[in-house]
Amino acid sequence: MRLRNLNQSLLFNIIISPENFTYKTTQFSFIVIIGEPSEGPRLPNYLLWIIIVVLVSIISALGILSLRTYVIQPRRRKREAVLLSKTQRFKDLKNIQAIVIIHRLSGIPIFSKSYSILEKHKKELFSGFIQAITTIGEEFVGKKVAESEKKYGVEKMIELDFKQFYCLIADIEVIRTVFILKTKSSERLRSQISNLVLALNLKLSRELENWDGSLDDFEIIVPQIVNEYFELYYKESFKFSSDINLIKMKKEKKFTKMELRVINVIQSMSKDKVIVDINNIIELVHEENKDLIIEAIENLIKQKIIIPVKN
């Protein structure tokens, strides 16, 4: 090995000779530059600490953002979904203003249940009105089944907006079911109505095959089928159960804070221990999240603290 000093640089020549003369000697050259380390301007200590603090703050902010995005928000959405699943049934029942089940071929209503919006003696008039609208609609748009109707398994399902109320109509074979609603129907309500229509068709097809126009049998059979899919007693009057001791249960802290608030409102508004309209409770309890009030009412009904009044 030879080295030479070339203007502060060292030149190394390394020659490797193997013992076996079969291989030829090969020469490689490389340059190693050796110099004194140069010292640049150094940052002041306080500036270095500022940079560290800023970096730590950024890392912390990103960590909090990630925690919020991937942990907190998914948990919150899950809680909201669970709460919605508990309260949507109540909202759907509250939305129902009337139910009319019609024999499609004759247009005669075989069952009707109204909650203030449809007068009893006008159900035949309303039935004829619906028959006319659907017939005209079929003439204009034809009888092609929409994708939504295929989804729910019925021949036809349409929702009409009459400004003051909505009308959801579901048809299958000789049965037409009409729900008069206060607001637009939910996905769950549409699914429940389709299940009801299919059950009605299955259980009433034989009776309607040679129907003589008598409604006596339907007045017994139809309410039983409807109640399998819709707890319409929620729309009736309620009262406190006589089998419970509210004072004792309050002392034993058997209720949540929201349940206690609901109980206090019921006690203040009920006449002769009867709740005329359970929906009024939701308006009287001061709480922005109405789902929490509905959940509390549902729990009280489930625990049989308040029970429906049998007519």
Walk me through the structure:
The protein has 311 residues and is α+β, with helices and mostly antiparallel strands. It has 3 domains: 32 residues, no CATH class; 136 residues, Beta-Lactamase (2-Layer Sandwich), CATH 3.30.450; 71 residues. 49% of the residues lie in helices and 21% in strands. It has 9 helices and 11 strands. The strands form 3 sheets. The protein has a 5-stranded antiparallel sheet with strand order 5-4-8-7-6, with helices on both faces. Strands 1-2-3 form a 3-stranded antiparallel sheet, with no helix packed on it. A 3-stranded antiparallel sheet has the order 10-9-11. The longest helix has 51 residues. The protein is extended. The termini are far apart. The N terminus is likely disordered.
CATH topology of the largest domain: Beta-Lactamase
Number of domains: 3
Q: Write the H/E string, N to C.
A: EEEHEEHHEEEHHEHHEHHE
Largest sheet: 5 strands, antiparallel
Radius of gyration, taken over Cα atoms and rounded to an integer in Å: 39 Å
Termini separation comes to 114 Å
Query: What coarse outline follows from CA principal-axis ratios?
Result: extended
CATH superfamily annotation of the largest domain? Dynein light chain 2a, cytoplasmic
Quick overview of this protein structure:
This protein has 311 residues and is α+β, with helices and mostly antiparallel strands. It has helices spanning 45-95, 123-141, 147-152, 187-209, 216-229, 246-251, 257-269, 279-284, 290-302; strands spanning 2-6, 9-16, 26-33, 96-103, 108-114, 156-161, 166-172, 175-181, 238-240, 274-275, 306-308. It folds into three domains: 2-33, no CATH class; 95-230, 2-Layer Sandwich (Beta-Lactamase), CATH 3.30.450; 238-308.
